[in-house]
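Quick start: what a row looks like.
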Amino acid sequence: MEEIRMKENTAGGELIDGVRYEAEKPELLHQQLCFGIGRQLVNYAEENKEACFVLPFPVRVKMNGEENTVLQPDLSLVFDPRKLCSSGINGAPDLVVEVIAPETAWRDRFTKLAKYMNGGVREYWIVDGAAGTVIVYEREALVIPMTYTFDDKVPVGVLGRACRIDFQRIYKRILPFEEYSF
């Protein structure tokens, strides 16, 4: 299988239309949200014998036909093992989750949304920890994106909506980071 290559060493960033973006160091809330979502996806897949792979950041995603673009989503779910190689994912993941930060919000909400939807990603989530919202885009749905709050259990469309991510459960396990100073 063809390895994913970038024109420059971008171990900590992305390449979008030939422009390199450095990866920002994620805050604790960002990491805990990614871990909590990933853990619930893995648990569901194992309990229900779903043949899928849940891949956390940093995994490189080379979308089909995008020679100058290599993305690094916060979390990916892939059903087809033929898309996986030692350096990442060749082709569209089935689900992509981005937990936004102020410095990447515009890119995640617009640029990467277009790349993922045009590239064949079936479902794209934008998780905003500060606002407590999840916007879900489903490629094949002929409706506007759905917006959920962290009070909702968010259904995962690519898993037949039976899997629901419980953000209240995630928040119960998040460290009270405001109480710590370094």
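That is the whole record. Confidence is low (pLDDT under 50) at residues 6-10. Residues 85 and 145 are 31 Å apart (CA to CA).
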